[in-house]
Amino acid sequence: MSVEKNSGMQKTARQFLLALTACLAVAGGAALAVAPGDAPESPVQHAGVTVDWPHTTATATPAPVN
């Protein structure tokens, strides 16, 4: 690989990383700007068994005879 081609690839990689850093900085700033400051947290729902659900016990029912 020639020195000229190698330096061109390094320049391209450097420019890409600079653009990526700039985009991430802008996106991070935008996220902070729209984030609510003192908004109350929403209630968190957890999956699993709860005691407040109206549980019913399963009963066996005979299959209808045709």
Sketch the topology as an H/E string, one letter per element: H
Q: How far is it from the N-terminal to the C-terminal residue, by CA?
A: 83 Å
Question: Overall 3D geometry?
Answer: elongated
Could you tell me the strand content as a percent range? under 5%
Percent range of helical residues: 40-55%
The average pLDDT value, as a whole number, equals 77
CA-based gyration radius: 30 Å
Sheet of most strands? none
Q: So how many helices?
A: 1
Provide the low-confidence segments as ranges: none
Number of E-state strands: 0
Which structural class is indicated by helix and strand composition? mainly alpha
What does this structure look like?
With 66 residues, the chain is mainly α. 48% of the residues lie in helices and 0% in strands. It has one helix and no strands. The protein has one helix at 3-34. It is elongated. The model has no long low-confidence stretch (mean pLDDT 77).
Q: What is this structure's SSE topology?
A:
Blueprint: H1 3-34
